[in-house]
Amino acid sequence: MTARVTALSDAIAAHVRDGACVALEGFTHLIPFAAGHEIIRQGRRNLHLVRMTPDLIYDQMIGMGCASRLTFSWGGNPGVGSLHRLRDAIEHQWPAPLEIDEHTHAGVAAAYSAGAAGLPFATLRGYLGTDLPSVNPRIRSVDCPFTGERLAAVPAINPEVTILHAQRADRHGNVAMHGIIGAQREAAFAARALIVTVEEIVEELPPAMNGIVLPHWIVSAVAQCPGGAYPSYVHGRYPRDNAFYQRWDAIARERAGFLAWMNRHVLASRDHATFLASLRQVA
Amino acid sequence: MSDWTRDEMMTVAAARMLWDGCVCFVGIGLPSAACNLARLTHAPDVVLIYESGTVGTRPDVLPLSIGDGELADTAACVIPLPEVFSYLLQAGRVDVGFLGAAQVDRHGNLNSTVIGPYHAPKTRLPGAGGATEIAAHARQVFVMLKATPRSLVAQLDFRTSGGFLEGHGARAKTSMRGTGPQSVITDYGVLKPHPDSDELQLSALFDGATVDAARAATGWPLKVAATVGTIAPPTAVELETLRALHARTREAHRRPVRLPA
Description:
The complex is a heterodimer. By secondary structure, chain A is α/β, with parallel strands linked by helices. Chain A has ten helices and 15 strands. Chain B has a ten-stranded mixed β-sheet with strand order 4-3-2-1-5-10-11-12-13-14, with helices on both faces. In chain B, strands 6-7 form a two-stranded antiparallel sheet.
């Protein structure tokens, strides 16, 4: 398959269907906000969202009614408090009921790794001393055939689409990223389709002996999208807007205020550049 | 009236428990402040690991999130997240895990998932994150939380992370590799497990705190160790270092970010 350099809106329209299992990864760093906003604009419904830390982007997608199921391991606004839209969905089924498939970080990391390796499940010495297996039937156990030790088992995660943001890609679709990379590489190789937004598309990437390069033949679509991780960050380009993460607490606390903000900044913007321009007007 | 806050006393007491060179898995909030205070005072070579994959990090300001760029910029290395949990934590290469929680019970089990029933929550909390496996596999665990009868509870609403389970050696029968919560640092003093029952008991009080106040802030009948120590107040150096760290942090987090073009 040849990677295609395309517009973000075309990539989302081509690969993300209603009801799909979709993972937008990025552990605090390189969170693909622009892609999440485009999914909201295109009005996708009943998505099964997967992400270790739902963060603000899933708070927004859940609050806008895109999701019916969530696989996750830590659902807060880091260093600030609650994700109010996620809580409203779990506690009050607003705007729609949300089925949750709850894990630990170690479990999701292992499940992505198994998915990337084409294995049916992951095993780990995990989920010990916790009530999680009693509320999540997908957390099971397996006996080691060599030592007899009972280990935890979780099914592999193989998203229909994984979406990432990265620093750079070349025109063939090879993708380079550096900094905190979370479980992005595993989520990329586990997916059936991979969409990557990047700050910059260059003619050729320099050889990256140990840098993270996703090879073009696993990349379904690349879209140039400067600022595409804002308000999270891109190492070497722009910092995390911690003040925005703190402001989000008040923006998302009440349904009406949240909807007004989303309408004004996301739905009324035709793309990410317009979204960023709308925030500049406020600042 | 002392000239330091309870938060400061907790942070200083926790920092003192870390030794130079120890490998410490850090949580956001009070634990992060305590670990960096230790690094900036008596333990310059403490190895701080944040679950984002930043190893041996030496941040100038405290991160707001577990993965701020500051942590990567000042790290000895940045590794993929699956390796943090498998190669470092699960394989037993972490000396101390530092955790917070909404609720702790008398056996040091932690809840950070939900208040009320899981399927009909009164308050949905963020959940496990790295805590369950940190609690299982770090060689020892320190817990930090403010004491109230709603946080130190007789019965957890949900067990997110295992401490000593039902006590009386129950943990040792599992494949949890670490020794469990060896210290719970509250804002009146420190609880430590009884060697036989594994029940947390009052081991030391902060200067000015009383056994009665500790009992009033605990949701189970708190037992008291045969000798209860007194934790020395913060030194001038500890307080100055901590306050300067917080001042730098506040300034950095307020700094406006220029929106990317």
